[in-house]
Amino acid sequence: MSDALLTLAGVHTHIGQYHILQGVDLVVPRGGLTMLLGRNGAGKTTTLRTIMGLWQASQGQITFDGRDITRAHTADLAASGIAYVPEDMGIFAGLTVRENMVLAARSGPMDQKRLAWIYELFPALEKFWNWPAGNLSGGQKQMLAIARAIVEPRELLIVDEPSKGLAPAIIGHLIQAFRELKSTHTTILMVEQNFSMATALGDTVAVMDDGRVVHAGSMHELAHDGDLQRRLLGLSLDAHQ
Predict the structure, then answer these.
(1) Which end of the chain is more exposed for a tag (fewer CB within 10 A), N or C?
(2) Taking every annotated instance into account, which residue ranges of this chain make up the domain ABC transporter (predicted)?
(3) Is 226 exposed, middle or buried (0-12, 13-18, 19+ CB in 10 A)?
(4) Is the C-alpha dihedral spanning 171, 176, 179, 180 positive or negative?
(5) What dihedral do alpha carbons 175, 183, 145, 43 form, nearest 10°?
(6) Architecture of domain 1-81+189-241
(7) Which residues contact 171 (CB under 8 A, 6 or more apart)?
Protein backbone atom coordinates (compact mmCIF):
# COMPACT_ATOMS: atom_id res chain seq x y z
CA MET A 1 0.00 0.00 0.00
CA SER A 2 3.02 2.25 -0.39
CA ASP A 3 1.83 4.11 -3.52
CA ALA A 4 -1.29 6.15 -4.05
CA LEU A 5 -4.00 5.00 -6.44
CA LEU A 6 -6.15 8.11 -5.92
CA THR A 7 -5.14 11.59 -4.78
CA LEU A 8 -7.04 14.82 -4.31
CA ALA A 9 -4.98 18.00 -4.10
CA GLY A 10 -6.58 21.28 -3.05
CA VAL A 11 -10.03 20.26 -4.32
CA HIS A 12 -12.83 22.80 -4.02
CA THR A 13 -16.45 22.11 -4.97
CA HIS A 14 -19.25 24.65 -5.22
CA ILE A 15 -22.88 23.54 -5.38
CA GLY A 16 -24.87 26.56 -6.42
CA GLN A 17 -23.95 29.36 -4.05
CA TYR A 18 -22.53 26.96 -1.47
CA HIS A 19 -18.78 26.37 -1.15
CA ILE A 20 -18.84 22.77 0.15
CA LEU A 21 -15.29 21.44 -0.34
CA GLN A 22 -12.67 23.98 0.66
CA GLY A 23 -9.34 22.53 -0.35
CA VAL A 24 -9.54 18.77 0.19
CA ASP A 25 -6.23 16.91 0.24
CA LEU A 26 -6.70 13.13 0.29
CA VAL A 27 -4.48 10.14 -0.48
CA VAL A 28 -5.97 6.66 -1.05
CA PRO A 29 -3.17 4.04 -0.99
CA ARG A 30 -3.31 1.29 -3.56
CA GLY A 31 -4.58 -2.05 -2.29
CA GLY A 32 -5.99 -0.87 1.05
CA LEU A 33 -9.22 0.38 2.55
CA THR A 34 -9.35 4.08 3.38
CA MET A 35 -12.10 5.30 5.69
CA LEU A 36 -13.42 8.82 5.23
CA LEU A 37 -14.93 9.94 8.53
CA GLY A 38 -16.42 13.11 9.92
CA ARG A 39 -19.51 14.68 11.37
CA ASN A 40 -22.68 15.07 9.30
CA GLY A 41 -22.25 17.89 6.82
CA ALA A 42 -18.45 17.73 6.83
CA GLY A 43 -18.31 17.14 3.07
CA LYS A 44 -17.76 13.38 2.84
CA THR A 45 -20.47 12.56 0.29
CA THR A 46 -19.60 15.66 -1.72
CA THR A 47 -16.02 14.40 -1.88
CA LEU A 48 -17.15 11.04 -3.27
CA ARG A 49 -19.48 12.64 -5.79
CA THR A 50 -16.76 15.04 -6.90
CA ILE A 51 -14.34 12.15 -7.46
CA MET A 52 -17.00 10.44 -9.61
CA GLY A 53 -17.65 13.55 -11.68
CA LEU A 54 -21.24 13.84 -10.50
CA TRP A 55 -20.27 17.29 -9.23
CA GLN A 56 -17.40 19.16 -10.82
CA ALA A 57 -14.46 20.43 -8.81
CA SER A 58 -14.15 24.20 -9.15
CA GLN A 59 -10.48 24.12 -8.21
CA GLY A 60 -7.73 21.58 -7.51
CA GLN A 61 -6.76 18.26 -9.07
CA ILE A 62 -7.93 14.65 -8.80
CA THR A 63 -5.50 11.96 -9.96
CA PHE A 64 -6.33 8.28 -10.47
CA ASP A 65 -3.56 5.81 -11.22
CA GLY A 66 -1.35 8.64 -12.45
CA ARG A 67 -4.02 10.18 -14.69
CA ASP A 68 -5.70 13.54 -14.16
CA ILE A 69 -9.44 12.80 -13.88
CA THR A 70 -10.54 16.18 -12.51
CA ARG A 71 -12.75 16.90 -15.53
CA ALA A 72 -13.53 13.31 -16.52
CA HIS A 73 -17.13 12.25 -17.17
CA THR A 74 -18.75 9.74 -14.83
CA ALA A 75 -19.20 7.13 -17.57
CA ASP A 76 -15.54 7.37 -18.50
CA LEU A 77 -14.52 6.93 -14.86
CA ALA A 78 -16.66 3.80 -14.62
CA ALA A 79 -15.05 2.43 -17.77
CA SER A 80 -11.59 3.13 -16.33
CA GLY A 81 -12.13 0.79 -13.38
CA ILE A 82 -13.84 2.90 -10.71
CA ALA A 83 -17.12 1.69 -9.21
CA TYR A 84 -19.40 3.74 -6.96
CA VAL A 85 -22.05 2.56 -4.50
CA PRO A 86 -24.04 5.66 -3.48
CA GLU A 87 -25.79 6.09 -0.17
CA ASP A 88 -29.17 5.44 -1.84
CA MET A 89 -27.72 2.21 -3.37
CA GLY A 90 -28.80 3.07 -6.93
CA ILE A 91 -30.46 -0.25 -7.75
CA PHE A 92 -33.38 -0.60 -10.17
CA ALA A 93 -36.30 -1.64 -7.97
CA GLY A 94 -38.53 -2.68 -10.86
CA LEU A 95 -35.95 -5.06 -12.33
CA THR A 96 -34.98 -8.47 -11.02
CA VAL A 97 -31.72 -9.12 -9.21
CA ARG A 98 -30.46 -10.84 -12.36
CA GLU A 99 -31.42 -7.91 -14.58
CA ASN A 100 -29.69 -5.48 -12.23
CA MET A 101 -26.52 -7.54 -12.44
CA VAL A 102 -26.69 -7.92 -16.23
CA LEU A 103 -26.96 -4.13 -16.64
CA ALA A 104 -23.91 -3.64 -14.42
CA ALA A 105 -21.77 -6.00 -16.52
CA ARG A 106 -20.64 -3.30 -18.93
CA SER A 107 -18.14 -5.29 -20.98
CA GLY A 108 -20.40 -8.21 -21.91
CA PRO A 109 -21.91 -11.37 -20.41
CA MET A 110 -21.24 -11.94 -16.72
CA ASP A 111 -18.23 -14.09 -15.91
CA GLN A 112 -19.76 -17.19 -14.30
CA LYS A 113 -16.73 -17.88 -12.11
CA ARG A 114 -16.88 -14.35 -10.73
CA LEU A 115 -20.65 -14.65 -10.28
CA ALA A 116 -20.13 -17.82 -8.23
CA TRP A 117 -17.67 -15.88 -6.06
CA ILE A 118 -20.27 -13.11 -5.57
CA TYR A 119 -22.81 -15.76 -4.55
CA GLU A 120 -20.35 -16.88 -1.87
CA LEU A 121 -20.11 -13.32 -0.60
CA PHE A 122 -23.86 -12.73 -0.73
CA PRO A 123 -25.82 -16.04 -0.80
CA ALA A 124 -29.16 -14.19 -0.65
CA LEU A 125 -28.61 -12.90 -4.18
CA GLU A 126 -28.56 -16.42 -5.59
CA LYS A 127 -31.66 -17.32 -3.60
CA PHE A 128 -33.58 -14.27 -4.86
CA TRP A 129 -31.98 -14.14 -8.33
CA ASN A 130 -35.30 -13.78 -10.16
CA TRP A 131 -37.05 -11.57 -7.61
CA PRO A 132 -37.76 -7.90 -8.26
CA ALA A 133 -35.01 -5.96 -6.50
CA GLY A 134 -37.63 -3.74 -4.88
CA ASN A 135 -38.89 -6.75 -2.91
CA LEU A 136 -35.56 -7.33 -1.17
CA SER A 137 -34.87 -6.30 2.41
CA GLY A 138 -32.69 -3.28 3.09
CA GLY A 139 -29.67 -5.45 3.76
CA GLN A 140 -30.25 -7.51 0.62
CA LYS A 141 -30.55 -4.33 -1.46
CA GLN A 142 -27.20 -3.17 -0.11
CA MET A 143 -25.68 -6.54 -0.99
CA LEU A 144 -27.06 -6.18 -4.51
CA ALA A 145 -25.68 -2.65 -4.81
CA ILE A 146 -22.20 -3.86 -3.84
CA ALA A 147 -22.47 -6.93 -6.07
CA ARG A 148 -23.37 -4.71 -9.05
CA ALA A 149 -20.29 -2.62 -8.37
CA ILE A 150 -17.96 -5.64 -8.34
CA VAL A 151 -19.61 -7.78 -11.04
CA GLU A 152 -16.49 -6.92 -13.04
CA PRO A 153 -13.02 -6.46 -11.50
CA ARG A 154 -12.49 -2.87 -10.33
CA GLU A 155 -9.34 -1.02 -9.41
CA LEU A 156 -11.19 1.28 -7.02
CA LEU A 157 -14.48 0.76 -5.19
CA ILE A 158 -16.08 3.87 -3.64
CA VAL A 159 -18.83 3.17 -1.11
CA ASP A 160 -21.00 5.68 0.76
CA GLU A 161 -22.29 4.53 4.18
CA PRO A 162 -22.97 0.86 3.39
CA SER A 163 -24.19 0.04 6.92
CA LYS A 164 -26.74 2.85 7.17
CA GLY A 165 -30.02 1.61 8.61
CA LEU A 166 -28.96 -2.05 8.71
CA ALA A 167 -29.23 -4.55 11.55
CA PRO A 168 -26.03 -5.60 13.36
CA ALA A 169 -26.14 -9.11 11.88
CA ILE A 170 -26.24 -7.69 8.35
CA ILE A 171 -23.43 -5.26 9.17
CA GLY A 172 -21.35 -8.22 10.34
CA HIS A 173 -22.01 -9.94 7.03
CA LEU A 174 -20.92 -6.83 5.12
CA ILE A 175 -17.72 -6.61 7.16
CA GLN A 176 -16.84 -10.17 6.14
CA ALA A 177 -17.62 -9.41 2.51
CA PHE A 178 -15.43 -6.31 2.49
CA ARG A 179 -12.63 -8.26 4.14
CA GLU A 180 -12.85 -10.76 1.30
CA LEU A 181 -12.75 -7.90 -1.19
CA LYS A 182 -9.67 -6.49 0.54
CA SER A 183 -7.96 -9.85 0.16
CA THR A 184 -8.28 -9.49 -3.63
CA HIS A 185 -6.26 -6.25 -3.42
CA THR A 186 -9.21 -4.14 -4.51
CA THR A 187 -8.65 -0.57 -3.33
CA ILE A 188 -11.63 0.76 -1.37
CA LEU A 189 -12.61 4.28 -0.28
CA MET A 190 -15.50 4.18 2.17
CA VAL A 191 -17.59 6.72 4.04
CA GLU A 192 -18.98 5.07 7.16
CA GLN A 193 -20.70 6.33 10.31
CA ASN A 194 -20.60 2.97 12.10
CA PHE A 195 -17.31 3.29 13.96
CA SER A 196 -17.14 -0.36 14.86
CA MET A 197 -17.26 -1.20 11.16
CA ALA A 198 -14.73 1.54 10.42
CA THR A 199 -12.22 0.17 12.91
CA ALA A 200 -12.80 -3.42 11.77
CA LEU A 201 -12.05 -2.64 8.12
CA GLY A 202 -9.99 0.52 7.80
CA ASP A 203 -6.28 0.51 7.03
CA THR A 204 -5.96 4.26 6.68
CA VAL A 205 -8.33 7.04 7.67
CA ALA A 206 -9.01 10.63 6.73
CA VAL A 207 -11.23 12.79 8.92
CA MET A 208 -13.13 15.72 7.40
CA ASP A 209 -14.50 18.86 9.00
CA ASP A 210 -15.96 21.95 7.32
CA GLY A 211 -15.05 20.80 3.82
CA ARG A 212 -11.41 19.92 4.55
CA VAL A 213 -9.41 16.90 5.63
CA VAL A 214 -8.20 17.76 9.13
CA HIS A 215 -6.48 14.47 9.96
CA ALA A 216 -5.00 11.58 8.00
CA GLY A 217 -3.19 8.52 9.29
CA SER A 218 -3.63 4.91 10.25
CA MET A 219 -7.02 3.60 11.37
CA HIS A 220 -5.24 1.67 14.12
CA GLU A 221 -3.87 4.90 15.59
CA LEU A 222 -7.28 6.59 15.65
CA ALA A 223 -9.00 3.48 17.03
CA HIS A 224 -6.63 3.36 20.01
CA ASP A 225 -6.48 7.08 20.84
CA GLY A 226 -9.62 8.23 22.65
CA ASP A 227 -8.37 11.81 22.97
CA LEU A 228 -7.79 12.00 19.22
CA GLN A 229 -11.26 10.58 18.56
CA ARG A 230 -12.90 13.15 20.80
CA ARG A 231 -10.91 16.00 19.27
CA LEU A 232 -11.64 15.01 15.69
CA LEU A 233 -15.10 13.48 15.91
CA GLY A 234 -16.51 14.73 19.19
CA LEU A 235 -16.83 11.24 20.64
CA SER A 236 -14.92 8.15 21.63
CA LEU A 237 -15.10 5.12 19.33
CA ASP A 238 -15.03 2.91 22.42
CA ALA A 239 -18.61 3.92 23.13
CA HIS A 240 -19.69 2.46 19.79
CA GLN A 241 -18.06 -0.97 19.96
Answers:
(1) C
(2) 6-235
(3) middle
(4) negative
(5) 70
(6) 3-Layer(aba) Sandwich (3.40)
(7) 163, 194, 196, 197
What CA–CA distance (Å, rounded) separates 30 from 64?
10
Query: Which one, of 205, 208, 215, 188, lies nearest residue 30 by Cα?
Result: 188
Domain boundaries, the chain: 1-81+189-241
Amino acid at 150: I
User: Hey, CA dihedral for 202, 208, 213, 214, is it positive or negative?
Assistant: negative
Residue 51 and residue 7 in contact, taking contact as beta carbons nearer than 8 Å = no
Mean pLDDT, 10 residues at a time, the chain of 241 residues: 87 96 98 95 97 97 97 95 94 97 90 96 97 96 97 96 94 96 95 94 96 96 91 61 39
CB 28 within 8 A of CB 223: no
Q: How far apart, in whole angstroms, are the C-alpha atoms of residue 177 and residue 118?
A: 9
Sign of torsion over alpha carbons 47, 59, 26, 6: positive
0.85 cut: is pTM over it?
yes
Which residue type occupies 87? E
